[in-house]
Structure formats: C-alpha cells, structure tokens
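Quick one - first record:
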Amino acid sequence: MTGVDRVEAAVEVEDEGRVGRRALEVPDLSLVVLIGATGAGKSTFAARHFKATEVISSDFCRGLVSDDENDQSASGDAFDVLHFIVGKRLAAGRLTVVDATNVQSEARTQLVKLAREHDVLPVAIVLDVPEQVCAERNATRADRAGLPRRVIQRHQRELRRSLRHLEREGFRKVHHLRGQTEADAAEVVRERRFNDLRHLTGPFDIIGDIHGCRSELESLLGRLGYVPVRDGLGRAVDAAHPEGRTAVFVGDLVDRGPDSPGVLRLVMGMVAAGHALCVPGNHENKLGRYLKGRKVQHTHGLAETIEQLEKEDAAFRDEVGAFLHGLVSHYVLDGGGLVVCHAGLPEKYHGRTSGRVRSFALYGDTTGETDEFGLPVRYPWAEDYRGRAAVVYGHTPTPRATWLNNTICLDTGCVFGGRMTALRWPERELVDVPAERVWYEPTKPLATEAPGGADGRPLDLDDVAGRRIVETRTMGRLAVKEENAAAALEVMSRFAVDPRLLPYLPPTMAPCATSQEDGYLEHPAEAFAGYRADGVREVVCEEKHMGSRAVALVCRDETVAAERFGVPEGVPGALYTRTGRPFFDDAEATGTLLRRVAACVAEAGLWEELETDWLLLDAELMPWSLKATGLLRKQYAAVGAASGAAFPGVLGALEAAAGRGVEVGPLLQRQRDRAADAAAFTAAYRRYCWRVGERATPDGPVPLVPSGPSGPSVSSGPVVPVKAVEAVDGGALAVAGARAVPGSGPESGSGPVPEGLGPVPDGLGALEGVRLAPFQILAVQGRSLAGLAHTEQLALIDRIVAAESAVSGQEDGASGGGRAAGGAGLLATTRRIIVDTEDEASVAAGIRWWLELTADGGEGMVVKPVQALIRQPDGRLVQPGVKCRGREYLRIIYGPEYTRPENLKRLRIRHLGHKRSLALREYALGLEALDRLAEGEPLWRVHEAVFGVLALESEPVDPRL
C-alpha cells in the first residue's frame, strides 16, 4: 500500500442503516482544499458538507472582479482576492474550504503556504471523477456547454501527476474519493483539535516547573487539597481532589532534581486517571528523543534523569516514552479563557497546530543575544501580549510569580532552592511551598527576567490610539472616536500621573432638568421629580463641596504601592484630577496627604474590615483656588476687576447728573442693579478661595488657613507656601464673612481667611488649609465597591473622617505639641439628607435643606439614588447622580446678570440630552475600569476604559452644563 493509499483510507461506518459511508476526518480549524477537474462536482460536494460562508470559490471571486465567473483573463486578480479572504478567515480561526480545480501544484503551493502562515493544517479532498462524467455535467451548464474536451483531459492528467506528491507538498491529510459513488457516500467528520479543551471549565490547579522535586510536589498537592494514592511500595501513583479539581502541569517534570521517575510516576498516574492534564516542557522533549534512541547531549540535568531511569524496569521506561510522545504542545481551556503551555504563547498561536507553534510552546523565543552567563536572552513576548485568554506558563525561573498583561510565569525555581508554585483557577490565587534544599546550582542567580519582566506592566500606543470599541458590562459596546482618542492621548502622555497609578477617571455629571421656578435655573424639585419618574423612590442628597474633583489611590504603605502597582519605593499612591493630572507638583505634599488618609483608614479599622491593602477614593479637594488659579485670574477675577473699576465712576457720574436735575433715574437704577449683580458675582467666586500653606508674620509663622473663634493657630514650622493665589481683581481673594489675620491684605500678598472652620492641626506642613472631602470608596483589593449603597459608602467615609482626630492627637503627642479639641483637619465630612421622592413632606424637607445650604454660600448638592446601578423597567440605566447647583453659584457659571428674567428665559433653553448621554457612557466606562482593576486584569485593559472616559470628555458639549 502506498503512502497516499494509507492516508486516504477512510473509516467505514454505518449511517442510518446504510453500509459504506466514508468518514473524512477534517480538523475543526483547517484549510480544506478541494481538488478535481472542472465538472468533478466540487461545488456540489462543498455545499453538501460545509456552510456557505466557509466555502471560497474561485468562480465567485472571478465574478467579483470581472462580473463574469468564466472570464479566465481575470483569474490572476480573482485568486488574489481568494487568497486574501482565505488569509483573513484563517487569521480569525475559521475553517475555510477552497473550491477551485487546484490540479496544478503551483496553485496548491500557495494555499499550503497560507495554511502554514496561519498555523493550521492543510487537508486535501480529491474528487477523482471519470472524464465522461465531468463532460456530461459541463454540458448541462449554459456557461460551460462549449467547454473544449481537452480542458477536462488536461485537468485529469495534472491530477494524476499530483496524487502521489500531495503529502510531500505539505497536506496533513489526503482523502481520495474515486468515482461518483465514493463521493456521494462520503461524510465529513469534524475533529476537535487535540489542544482544544475549551469544554473543560475546571476548576484547575496549574503547577509550575517541577524538575524532579517529587517531595515538594507532594507537599504542594497536599496544600492544594489533593489526596495521594500510593502503590504497594508506598510510591505516589495518583492524587485526586475531593472537590473534583483538575491539576494541570506546565512541563519540565524531569531533570536536575533528585527523583524524576517519582515525579513521572505520579503525574502519569494522575493523567491516566483523569485527575490531571500535562503539557510538555523542553526537558520532556529532549528526554523523549533520548528514549527513542535519538542522539542528544546529556546536559542541563538529563544525565541525572537517565541515571535515575536506569534503576527502573524497561516497562516503566517504555511507559514514560509513550506518555511523553502523546503530550500536546498546549491546551486551550475554560471556554477559551485559559491557555496553558510551557514557555508561553502569543495569542496568534492559541489553538493552532504547527511545528512553529510547538517550538514556541516548548522553548519560547529569543532575541538572538546571549547574556553574561552565556544563556540566550528571552524575547519579551508578554510585553506585547493583549489577548483575552490568560496564559499560564513556566520555563524561565523567576523569584516570584506575578501577572503581566494577563500572563503569569509559575517557574519559581524550586530545583534551584526557590519555591514550587501553583495557580488556582479561576480564583487566580497563588499557592506555593519552599524547596527542601538547593538541588541544582543555577547557572545564574534567579532574577525577575521572565519574558516581559515580572515587574513591568507596559502600555502600548495601539492600546488606546484610533477608533475603539470598548466592551462594558453596564452599557454594552461603547464607541470612542479617533479624534477624541487622539485628544486623550495628548493629555495622558504629556500631563498625567504615572499610568500605573491611574486606574480610574471619574465621569462628568449631568445637571437636573431645567427649572421653571421664578428666579431659578436649577431647583431640587426637578431632580426629585426626575428620579420619581424613573421609579427611584429613595435618594440621598449630598452636599456639593466647591473644590476640584480628586481621585486618591491610597496604599497602606509604600511597600504595598511598590508590590501591587509596580511603582518605585517611597511612593505611597497617587492624588490626581479628573483628567489624570497630579494635584501637586511637590511629591512630598502628595505623600503627606496620602499618608494622613492611610493613617485614618488604619485608625478606623478599615484595612482589616475590607480585607485590603489599598483603596481608591472619589473626593473633592478644597479650596477651589488650589487648582483653579489660572481660571480665576483670566476669567472670573477679570470680570470682577473690570466691574470694580467701571461701576463706581459710572454711578458717581449718573448720581451727579441726577443731582443737577437731569432725568437719568431709569438709567441710574439699571446701572445700580448691574453693579449689584457684579458685586454678587465677585462675592460668589470668592467664597470658594483661600490661601494655603504658611506665611511669616511679625509674631512668627502663621498658617494661611481658616481660623476659628480662638484665632489662627500658630505653627513653628518653616514658611512653605503651596499653590497660593496672589491678589487678583485688585485685591486678595476673600471669603464672605472672613476675618483678616495680622499682616493680611494686598501689602502682604495674603488674603483674609474664612471664619468658622476651626484651627487646623499641626503635622500637615505645606498642606495647612487644604481640605479633602471623600464621598465614595470606589474599589479595594479584589473587588469594586461602586455598587455599594451610598448610605453605606458615606458611613464608611464618616469613620475615616472621624478617625482623624485620633491620628492628629497621636502625631501631636509624638511631636510634643498639642491641638485644640474639636479642631478641623485635612478630611471634611459630606453632609447629606435622605429624601423619599413619593412623600411630599420629605421632598419639601429636601428643598428646604438645599435652600439653607445654598443661602450660606454652598455650591449646591448632588442627588443620587440610595442604591447604586438602578435600571428603569425597560433596562436602561438611571442617571447615577444629578447636580443641583445653587442660585448664586450659577452666577459664576452663567455671568453676573443671568438671573434677570429676560436672560433666564433664554438660558432655560438647554439641550441636556447629550450631556446626560455623556454622563452615562463615562459612568459605564468608569465602572468597567474598576471591575477590571479589581479582577486583576492587565493595566492595558484597565486603561482601555480609563482612556475612554478621557476621550469622551473631548466631545463638544456646553461647558456650563
């Protein structure tokens, strides 16, 4: 029997009582090439056995480029199109069938090349039909009735010459169907690839390189909960988990260690019993070649394994050889979400079958360089990895297993005296045991040089550039325009904090519906009515602090920040604006603030209660002038200065004219009203500005901070002004009702400080006067808290704020100082009230609370459903919050004279739809970023959503909304 005859031998099966059905095995991912003369029935065969979308016909492609499927002059372009489509389908992992004559070796060569380029198996199905049958079929087709007989004869000759060479051309399988009877009896059977175990969902325990360390392997399996099975000699020959978990070994079972046969005996027993899976490592590959009698070098521990195996009987060695021969290069598991291999695998190779894939899975890739120890430098494939499947591998020893772009190396050098590590999946929990001793001296010390670098979390331009579609769990697919992505990239690349410390950006917030109340543009009645219409009964109204939106990434200590976020030692976290920019240029100021917050979290007992070493806070940072100096100078202060310069003279002239009897009464009154509006405008923005830091006075350094009835507190620290707002609009920025401290005023370059906020404790240095008002804990280690009810959120925040008194007392005690009882500190409470939107009395109380809040100079409030993530009956997401701003605060936004009836009438025509849509989309992207962060996804995946928020901020929308 010839080689072709052996390959084409088909399995005879019974199908519905009929004998002689031929089963043609076709891998479920392959390139199927139909071969046969014109008229052989290839198109009919393809239509019967494959989906229409799987079949690419040369006739169809010829029609695409020439409008005539029989135009042979268009064949060159037609096959260019065919090859392009085939390549795209194979790249996408789709079985593809080429329907063409393919009787010439040149045509088949290009197709085999395409299959190899995409690491799939080429399969040939030959329809060897007699010449007469082909001629009769062509005669029945109007477009081929005149086809010369010599064309069919030429095809038949070329087919005969090709048959014996198809295997050598590269076809993995050749199915030769002789005559019409065999073609009609054929049945295509799709075979699952050996590496495709997507139907196995675990749970799994994936174990790193063992290298003959049997004792440590048994200890690790014991920690994982496996119960060993031993033979009569006490040797472990199997291990099963009582909860049905499956162990998965990443290879390198043998060499270097003390008991490679013992490891093989245990692993082979687990695999045979269905308790484990195993992929080969490069050491198994070498041992397998040795057992087959191939010539290999006895290096890198193979000599020790050979010596150990020689003490076993021949039957065991044969069993080992058969086991190693049957190992598959890699496995795709858990619905495609998990890939296990020995040396790592880029996404384009997942589930593919070729020598190149096997080589990469066994050995990885190198840069072509050697290090100072003479070892090859590994190519950092994991740095470029962007696949959704987690890749778990070993091969390159590293001191600790860490995630990098959804990949993790589990070889922690047990045989070199390190540890043996396992990954629990899907829990993503690491379990390890220490080596009993150094069994084999490493050529070089263990270092963090797993492919990609164990400590690196690199980003790539392609992760965020261009038009993108971001999949979110809350709102599905959200589009980011290319021009918006470019604007976001500009901000992030030039001005943002370290990307490793930027896991979230807060969304914009939509205003409540426009009010028709006399003198008001926004009013709480509309906010309550809107939520009532959405079916939300209970809402919480939170005081809106007039400051700048801030996100604080707070770590328990610098070590946590370094280990979890990969930042240099000494960085305790991050404090940044809603566009990702750092709040302070001074790293020490940022560190001081974050350490104070971390101490308060510790004092409140939340590190332990929330089971976390870090948390992400959404907050407001005050004063507004801390970050808005440029805006104050160029926009608001300019208006105040102009009105202050113009109106006194205008009013004086008009009053003098009126005194002389000139009829200017209406004009004078109008100018007086305008002057009053301008004064109200200046007073409005001054409420939210004060200087921070410390300044010198004749009596010593005095903090430029809010003071209480006892007067400003005195500090003995150095003079360190931070982000001070100098005199603008003709004088220092003030707060209504403020009392000047000694030495204040334009001459000293300082301004009055607001009354009633109390003394600030020592210990904050340059941050004296800064207030941080957190209102939500967004995420902690391992989970997002964005879905926690706002009442529960604020209760946790209250504990952190309340703890500051004790923290400040500890700091003062340590320094020998003291502080006034009940004094204000860095952290500010967010006042709130709960409103029942269906209770008129409750709604009235909420409105009164807002009026009192804004009458005292407050910005307003934010109204949120008490429960987070509320949906309407039709499934649409309810706005997570709406802002309802005070009448005087809106004067800053819309101008001094906005409350005049004619102006309000015009301003009430507000188009809120786009702003509300933007708020929801940004909210969904923010939630997605938090979920990905909590689940430990790679930084590029988190930043995909973070960049989306910033990109949407570039969409054109009325900035006053």
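second record:
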Amino acid sequence: MDYLAELRLQGFHQADDHRDDEGRVQFDCDLYRGTADELTIQVYAVDQEALEREVMPILEAVLPQIDEMVARLGEIDADLAQIILYRGRLGLHFWSRGVNNEFTGICTQSGDRWVFQGYGDIFANS
C-alpha cells in the first residue's frame, strides 16, 4: 500500500496537549479512514515544524518498507492497526483477528533498514 501518499493526503493533527519529559506532543494521522485498511500513524515532536523537519524524513524512508516488514514477521493472525514512531523506535501495532488481543512489534534502525527486535511496549524505556 502507498502509506506515504495517503499520509501526504491526510496530514497530521496534534492529538493532545500533554508533553512528555522531552517536551514532545503526540501527532496522529488516520490513513484510509473508514475502510478495512484503516491505519493510524502516531508520532511525537515538540511542534509541527519539528514534525516536518525531524520526523517526516524518517517516515518517508520507512513507510515504503512497512508491507515488507510485516511480511517478514511471518504468518500472524492479526491486522496492522497502528504505526508508532517513538524515541527512535518503530512500533508495528497489531489487533488479533480471532482473539481480543493486541501486540506491538518493535523495530530499530540499522543503516537504511529497520530490524525487528521483538514484541513489547514501544513506550517502555530502552
């Protein structure tokens, strides 16, 4: 899927006014809203300018790789529901199809690729 084109079409909105300990706030973008492919992108930046300058280049590089990254996880009975970029880590958040369960695959950057590190809490201190 062309997540980057859809992101450019929809754009980000500030999700709330709560700042983390580094002064960042949450920005969200809902891709393919109202369809079976709906997906939220959740990122953190101190303001809209920092979002464009610091976060968008990372998203521009990683979003074209998302489908491949999900495929490399193997057969999982879940749908990708959210992409989270937080403190240099990428979270692929899934909702299970058959059981009421959700889980996040965490990836870190290695050169121009993102490497799966395991499942866990993207917001936990690394």
